[in-house]
Amino acid sequence: MLRPPVTVPIAFVRGMVSGVEGRGHAREPLLAEAGIAPELLHQAGARVTADQYVALFRLTVDRLDDECLGFLSRRVKRGSLALVARSAVSAQTLEVAIRRCAHAFRLLQDDVELVLVREDSLAGLTLRMIDADAATRPFLHELLLRVFWRLLAWFAGGQLPAARFDFSIDMPSYAGDYGKVFPGPLRFGQPRSGVYFDAYRLQSPVRRNEEALRAFLADVQAQVIVPRRGDDLVSAGVRDYLQRTQPAWADLPATAEALHMASSTLQRRLAVEGTSFQALKDELRRDLAIVRLNTSTVPLQALADELGFADGPAFQRAFKGWTGSSPGAYRRRGFE
Asked: Alpha helix (H) ranges present in the chain?
């Protein structure tokens, strides 16, 4: 498949920088250095590219020397995640790896404890929030869950399907954007935040070694914080087919034929995944537009043609409907 364009909702950007000012740093210079216009923080529908999001994460970690981005009472210094991972890479099973990660992380800070729990046929890695202030930070829950879930999935050979995600926080206003970051049933207002998976996977062997760990750590920020696409989903096949056939932008019948199913079957299977053909088409065009505006000097009319719009004004209206901002607002971040 082609490398899909990935964009990140602005709510996750706001969350990422929400701990910065408490550490005596202004967020605007960090955003500008990552190529993100600070005014986009106030646009509910705005999005940034995955590259910008990773750049912001790296810059924030570097400026604060804190891999937990200022959310805990003491810094979790650069290299701490690598230390946690190295403590577990020689474990024989995933359960032993989890217990080693929990022990190492507890030595590095005072505010959060990783706790392995069992619930019927499920096992869960949960967060016991010791510090009351840390417990109120939604982004901290989001960050720790995705980092440790991704790390454990990597230990298990690349896959650790989540049975559900629990959050002890109330449902945020942007919970509709959780799906691509936390692909599984979501429950809010729970006693603890945690990720749950089939308990039998605790006995899965750790399939990594020191050489693999070095490669993982070389790009660890992107590995753990960028939303992952489920390549086994029908929606991923639709996006890939549309991306390969642009600028023709195949319709529903042509796409269904390419995926060897009837149009009605494709619509039904997409509905099960919580989406539709038109929604996937618009999301792909939105993501492609954001990436192109941030990485090229393509004229707006040419971009409108690439994305299958009749003219430039139609594209600009659609883009503002998708993001709340004009294409020009994105272009001014670096390419005039």
From this structure: 10-17, 27-33, 50-64, 80-88, 94-108, 132-135, 138-155, 210-218, 220-225, 234-245, 252-258, 263-272, 277-295, 300-306, 312-323, 327-331
